[in-house]
Amino acid sequence: MAATRGRLDRHEYDVTVEWTGDLGSGTESYRSYSRDHDVLADGRQGIAGSADPAFRGDPTRWNPEQLLVASVAQCHMLSYLHLCAVNGVTVTAYEDRAHGVLTMDDGGGSGRITGVTLRPEVTVAEASMVEKARTLHGEVPALCFIARSVDFPIHHEPVISVQD
Fold first, then answer.
1. Predicted confidence (pLDDT) per residue in 117-138, tens digit
2. Same domain as 87, residue 47
3. In 10 A of CB 136, how many CB atoms?
4. Same domain, yes or no, for 85 and 141?
5. pLDDT at 7
6. Residue 116 pLDDT exceeds 70
7. C-alpha angle with apex 39: 65 to 69, nearest 5 degrees?
8. Are residues 108 and 153 in the same domain?
């Protein structure tokens, strides 16, 4: 990896997706196997994954669509907190109830994520920080690695409040 001014200009991420859904006859038919799998990375707790229940998945496990929406929300939050820290906005609480939409193609065989709406509820330390806190959400898309990598719209509906 090459370094630029003391920083790495390339980061790599390795994960393992291990299918755990062989019910005894493998993928002999569409209904003969489970969609269960584990998402693994060195030194981290695994994530129990499956397909969306609409696609014969286990509703108690994370599905790829949820993980994509979570990635968008996480990246937005982390980029936003950075912007707040360097712009004098003290955030004391942050929670986002993100929502993603998967739209099926006309043929019904596939689909795509067509949008994500982020609804961050942010608490700041002082009333004088509210407007700047709201404005900084608009600067996040230029920084967030995930937002810069996807081709669907990401909408922001932030609610800013002041700590009691």
1. 999 999 999 999 999 999 999 9
2. no
3. 23
4. yes
5. 61
6. yes
7. 25
8. yes
